[in-house]
Amino acid sequence: MKKSLCLLSLFCLIISIPLQAQRSRKKKETETEKTTPGKSKNGIKKYTEVITKATLTDPGIFKVHQVGEDFYYEIPFSYLERDLLWVSRIAQLPNGLGGGYVNAGSKTNEQVVHWTRFRNKILLKSKSYVNVADSSKAINRSVQVNNYEPTLYAFDIAAFNPDSTAAVIDVTKFFSSDVPAISGLSSRLRKEYKVKKLDASRSFISNIHSYPENIEVRQDFTYEASEPPSLSRTESISLQMNQSMILLPEKPMTPRIFDPRVGFFTVSQYDYGSDALKADRKEYIRRWRLEPKDPEAYARGELVEPVKPIIYYLDPGTPENLQKYIKQGIEDWQKPFETAGFKNAIIARDAPTKEEDPEFSPEDVRYSVVRYVASTTRNAVGPSVSDPRSGEIIESDIIWYHNHLRSYRNRYLLETAAANPSARTLNTPDEEIGEMMRMVIAHEVGHALGFPHNMAASYAYPVDSLRNGAFTQKNGIAASIMDYARYNYVAQPGDENIRFIRQMGPYDHYAVNWGYRWLGESDPEEERPTLNDWILAKADNPRFKFGRQSSRFDPQSQTECIGDNPILASTYGLKNLKFVAARLPEWTSEVTNDYADLEELYGELLGVLSRYSGHVTNTVGGVFENIRTPEQSGYVYTHFDAGAQKDAVEWLHKNLFETPDWLLQENILQNIDHAGYFEDIRRLQARQLNALLSVDRLGRLFDGTTFNKDHYSALELLTDLRKGVWKEAYRGESADLFRRNLQRTYLERMAYLMTAESESGRSRPGFEGRLQYNTATSDLRALVRGELKRLRSDLAKASNSRISRETRYHYEDIMARIDHLFEGD
Question: How far apart are CA 110 and CA 295, in angstroms?
């Protein structure tokens, strides 16, 4: 028995040895498959099976491999979880896409992304820095789980590189698909052009280039569309997209905390790790990273070059005769940067030729470019791309549309020709056109440096100083290039040595110094006292005041206005317009033997008059916004002078609501249109009348009497308008066609105020600039009702006067309309 057991044991041992060896081999093979590239497991292939000898490889931040028509990224594991900025831009597009304001170079999206590994996939995820918390604090976990990042695309790992330090993924399908997050067609454009789908057979990857810190992808897309913007019979929209992915600094730039008393574009975050009893909103200014090459010399007050200057390249398609003016406009900012301690901080260069750099592309996120767009659009813009973690501007493209100079030529003639003989022509001298372009470029570069519009800069100078040659040559016409103060329309015939075109001002130097002066690598909070002291030192000087464009209620911060007295400035401007209108045919049609320019300029002249009138309108119910902190004396919001508001209404009656006969010139109107003269005048008047009778303006007048019972009131405005608009009725005189049209417009607006839906809630004061309140529970309808009943009674009396039949019929119609409005009362 024992012998049998021994033999059985020996047999089992003999059998088990190969079984154990087999299991061991399988275990080793399994482990090898998990750790060694080259073995097929879950679709992962050997590196050499994917990246063959025929592969074209472009080294860079990631190796980019092209295998036939397919493209692969080889992503080093060291770059997983790193923040990258992804910028989607249109490189080429069809004519008319977006109505003229979308062009080659237009940015369609900007987002932070990072690559991450999940099992045998590499995920591309979009990342937000809106909500943050210190990673060492427990609340950071809550921030993460309540702000889960969307996955833009999931890529299968195709292979690992030979030393297992990188994963290879196929990006062909991703870049050949219509991925919304990187698309060139928004949902609005898709709806407008009735886009059906992307046609895969006509869509492909043009090229992919990898560089040390970025990758640039060029895609060609063709969409099926029922109503494309051009070449409609093709039922297609083709456009070329450029996708830029750039590595963000591992250590973000030291941010500078925003102060609303100095104008900057910003990035904002909600810090849940703050000691405040709420998510603390932090706002940082957007600016380029400028650091001195020699910090010690910089600290001694010497001008020092930055480690990395701001460089703008000119679009290779820029007309030769304009190139020098564009370069001057860019480098005009060198002087303000010198105020901040930097020399040669911003530089203009020609784009490299194909021989110098065959891979140069204006869409490459490494390059900032002044793009020249062959488009009939009249505009220029200065967008930029920034790091949302710190506000560091990474790159920007200035967009200049070809036809924009025509707008400047027209306004130069209309606004300055009375006092400026060289503007009395359609052929503006080249140097003056160049100076205009130079200043527009400087303005747009200002945006790209981080500066928004400063609409208070034009209020810094007294109106009559703008008629002084020495003053304007030294100071320009506004304290900042960032205002919309394009021309000196105040100067009168006979004024000498006047500067008519805007230029850099003292505020520009001040703002650059405040935002860009290097204060070392200190904590942002530690900078605050110094930055505050700089503001307080200039706080009482209007030349260093910032006025928000959104402050539509503030007479100091108006677009296209110059001088510190809108009523006086508009009076001068109106005198000049009358001078120009009388001579417009002489300067246009009589020279060209054509009426096209006369028609265009007359139409724009009406627009200029509307702007001048609007500047006056905005003083009524006007509230000054002077942003300040509690340590500064005075209030943030103060109402415009009551007497000046009443004067403004009288100005509008005299210069706009009374029929402007100087606009009704036969040698203009009967050569440019067969009809519609009275309607053009009515629209011009209606715009200001309706603006005066806006709900929010009347609400501000209600507020104005809260602390000053003698303030110009809503009832006074309504009374002054009724007496002025209907003055013929009170004088027993006939009203002409133009006045009757104005009076009917008045009634339409008053009827609107009687029946408009109640507006509840209240927008943030001083931001959106529009007051919302419940009209039904305010004094609004009571005052309007009272004025209309008074008007009806007065018209009944006036109907018995010796007036024309048209006027009598008109009054009877108005009374009937009022009765209809009050039916059921």
Answer: 33
According to DSSP, the residues that pair with 89 across neighbouring strands are 107, 242
What SS3 class is residue 760? coil
In this prediction, residue 24 carries a pLDDT of 47
Q: How far apart are CA 125 and CA 152, in angstroms?
A: 5
Reported as a single tens digit per residue, the pLDDT across 381-414 is: 778 889 999 999 999 988 887 778 888 999 999 9
| Element at 615 (helix H, strand E) | helix 596-617
Quick one: CA torsion of 586, 590, 592, 593, rounded to 10 degrees?
160
Strands (E), 151-234: 151-160, 166-170, 195-198, 204-210, 214-225
Residue type, 722: R
Q: Answer for the pair 791, 783: CB distance below 8 angstroms, yes or no.
A: no
pLDDT single digits (tens) 674-708 = 999 999 999 999 999 999 999 999 999 999 999 98
Across the chain, what does the average pLDDT equal? 90
Nearest to 682 by CA among 597, 727, 745: 745
Tell how far CA 665 is from the center of its chain. Answer: 39
Q: What share of the chain is helix, strand, coil (3-state, %, to 5)?
A: 40, 20, 40
pLDDT band at 135 (very low <50, low <70, confident <90, very high): confident
Amino acid type, 369:
V
pLDDT one-digit tens code per residue, 29-56: 444 344 444 445 578 999 999 999 999 9
Closest CA to 242 of 357, 385, 128, 127: 385
CB 810 within 8 A of CB 725: no
What's the pLDDT at 758?
Answer: 54
Paired tokens of 483: 């205002």
| Residue pair 539/628 in contact by the 8 Å Cβ criterion | yes
- Average pLDDT for 546-558: 89
Q: Which residues, listed in sequence order, are joined to residue 439 by a DSSP beta bridge?
A: none
Note the pTM of the prediction, 2 decimals.
0.88
Query: pLDDT for 113-130, tens place per residue?
Result: 999 999 999 999 999 888
Return the pLDDT at 26: 45
In 10 A of CB 612, how many CB atoms?
25
Of residues 392, 311, 298, 368, the one with CA closest to residue 338? 298
State the DSSP H helix or E strand holding residue 74, giving kind and residue range, or none if neither.
strand 70-76
Alpha-carbon torsion, ordered 631, 635, 636, 640, to 10 deg: -160
Residues 6+ apart with CB under 8 A from 472: 465, 466, 488, 491, 497, 498, 499
For 154-228, where are the alpha helices, taking DSSP H only? 172-176, 187-192
Q: How far apart are CA 821 and CA 825, in angstroms?
A: 9
Query: What DSSP letter does each residue of 774-814 carry, written as one string?
Result: -GGGSSHHHHHHHHHHHHHHHHHHHTTSS--HHHHHHHHHH
pLDDT higher than 70, residue 148:
yes
- Per-residue 3-state assignment (H helix, E strand, C coil) for 113-150: EEEEEECCEEEEEEECCCEECCCCCCHHHHHHHCCCCC
- Does 291 or 272 have the greater pLDDT score? 291
CA 229 to chain centre: 24
Give CA–CA dist 675/682, Å, rounded. 14
In the three-class reduction of DSSP (H, G, I as helix; E, B as strand; rest coil), residue 424 is classed as: coil
Q: Are 551 and 561 in contact (CB under 8 A)?
A: no
The two structure tokens encoding residue 813: 């119609």
Task: Pick the closest to residue 735 from 678, 672, 662, 650 (CA basis).
Answer: 678
End-to-end CA distance of the chain: 122
Strand, coil or helix: 320: helix
Contact call for residues 768 and 550 (beta carbons, < 8 A): yes
CA 822 to CA 825: how far, in whole Å? 6
**pLDDT at position 413, please?**
97
The position carrying tokens 């030979």 is: 162
Tell me whether strands 266-271 and 131-132 are parallel, antiparallel or unpaired: parallel
